[in-house]
Amino acid sequence: MDTTDQSQASKNRKPKRSIIDCDIHAGSFSDEVLTYLPRIYREQIKTFGWRLPSQNAMYLNGTGGGAKQDENFPKEGGSASYLKYFQTNFLDKHNIEYGILTGTGSYSIQTIPDADYAAAVCSAYNDYGIDKLLSQDERIKGSILIPKQDPILSAKEIDRVGSNPDMVQVIVANGAEKPYGNRFYNPIYEACVRNNLPFAIHVSMEGIGTNPAPTGAGQVSHYIEYRAARAQIMATHLASFIFEGVFEKFPTLKVVMIEAGTLWIAPLLWRLDQDWKALRSQTPWVKEPPSEYYRKHFRVTSQPIEMPHKPTMFLPMFEAINADTNLMFATDFPHWDFDSPTLSLPKLDEELWDRIFYQNAAELYGLPQRRNQ
Amino acid sequence: MDTTDQSQASKNRKPKRSIIDCDIHAGSFSDEVLTYLPRIYREQIKTFGWRLPSQNAMYLNGTGGGAKQDENFPKEGGSASYLKYFQTNFLDKHNIEYGILTGTGSYSIQTIPDADYAAAVCSAYNDYGIDKLLSQDERIKGSILIPKQDPILSAKEIDRVGSNPDMVQVIVANGAEKPYGNRFYNPIYEACVRNNLPFAIHVSMEGIGTNPAPTGAGQVSHYIEYRAARAQIMATHLASFIFEGVFEKFPTLKVVMIEAGTLWIAPLLWRLDQDWKALRSQTPWVKEPPSEYYRKHFRVTSQPIEMPHKPTMFLPMFEAINADTNLMFATDFPHWDFDSPTLSLPKLDEELWDRIFYQNAAELYGLPQRRNQ
Lengths: 373, 373
Fold this sequence. Notes:
Two copies of one chain form a homodimer.
Chain A (H helix, E strand, L loop, with lengths): L2 H10 L6 E6 L5 H5 L4 H10 L29 H15 L3 E6 L13 H18 L7 E6 L5 H11 L5 E7 L12 H9 L4 E4 L20 H21 L2 H4 L5 E4 L6 H15 L10 H8 E4 L12 H7 L2 H4 E2 L21 H16 L8
Parallel strand pairs in A: 1-2, 2-3, 3-4, 4-5, 5-6, 6-7, 7-8
Helix pairs in contact in A: 5-6, 6-7
């Protein structure tokens, strides 16, 4: 076997035990989604287009369209044909017991000024996702896309589809006009808690549409800088949730941070714990060290996992971010920076592996244990 | 000796060998600075005030005015009286061979729209600093405040005072309308290189005056969140310098990052090195891994040093940020979050201690070796 074959074989290796993948993207088929919209919006879309601001209009990506080059998605047959490809070439191939779709539509809709239209499109995406994907395969779980421009309409959408057991969380883009701890969003968290659903933040839409520039120093020029800025905005949200006292108001709320990296969380918590000791009189409602709020209320997905220069730093950094309870594996299929379940993480002992690849997500989302133990 | 006395004694302990402190703030006395300004601006100030937007108008600080509560600065006698206090109660007390003043005026002047007035005030601050402080004690070194609103005027100011051997760097606030790698600033870097001066960025003015909101998700509500946002903006500048190719244009330029923390640099470099491998075709002028540009071109001051939850993480994290060559000790005197030279850092071996507390700064700023070895 030459090295190319070896590398191919190792790429195709399945995890021995089934896993939960916490960040998967499904293509949405516009002509199918359209049928879920009221006639007025169908006509507007026909005349003016979808009104979806996009990263591609401002920045490059890793590949054209952002997808892996070694996938051959079917060009015809719509969602039914897509689903078949997805089942065989992804869920079966990687031994995925549950795959969490992080939205069944575009986050762009959360960054347009017209909140009523955004609400209608979110409902259409959610209904489309339930009909065409979630109800077709019990392995596929979904995230409720909300018109976050309007927290009251968002709460209505959460109440509308939140009782569907296949919808396991509420999802928003990382790009935001205000940090997510701001009281503006409270109706969303009330609805999350009422429906027992985590609130998930997925990198996307930073600096796009209604959002401000992606950094506190304005626009950056290149995609690689833009990717680095995403972690910063996620850090802003993390601190905002804690210091605005969101978890004092909503003690059962859980927040999932998706695709913004993981290891930066350690120095951030060191900084926040230290500053909290010195400055806690300014935010007296924050009762515990910030790292405790993180441990209890946040979960973080692994992809794109950072590679410390010294491999010996991996496990101490994992410990510093409470990987055993807070880290959940994700591939980001089908995107270009896909993390393979068998190749992307360092060698872990069996217990830690099982926490990261299965149990942390199963507990958070209330998913049953493996069918084949 | 009771514990209070012990703690007082340990607070007052001097470093055995003299040190270089890379972040010191001197009070500026408005009535004295005024005499260095043209008459038109003296009259405008008399009528309208100084036009200095301030953090205090938006956020709290650690103490009123931001200073340590155990200092008793003289209330009368202006800069001469201040200088005496500063020499006895700071430079002598802490065995400081050189202390780098990070500006002799307010960074606020860099965030007002009127660039001509900003240029005049920067010149006045610089001249005041040279006359009243730098020329009075050979231990005190200064930083050139520039009207960064206008890079051409900034270059003129650097050329005007840059040949004074007591001015050891050019300084700007971290808050910025554009990341500092942007080509807008090139005339400043040309002047830095021409005068053999490092370019220093000191946290301040994020979200204030002409600057955008301090995060990519808009305004934050509390000072502790604001402090966390500062590191994010510094991270934006770091990535911007590298990916805009500033060091390809100015191969001898050095950049000093002041008061934004240190340990967050490690996961940022891991992320950037990894992404650079995947995305380098998009920025082909970036020839080496980002961590190499960091090692060669950046220096970072220690205060406020992060405390890892596990003390055993300190040295591996120091190694990950190249502390032996890139970290320079700073107290941030007289601010409330002052880091003591004898108490704030973990126990270091003698060689590493000497690099961080003396040699790295001596090499960067071209300062002579200790008088008493």
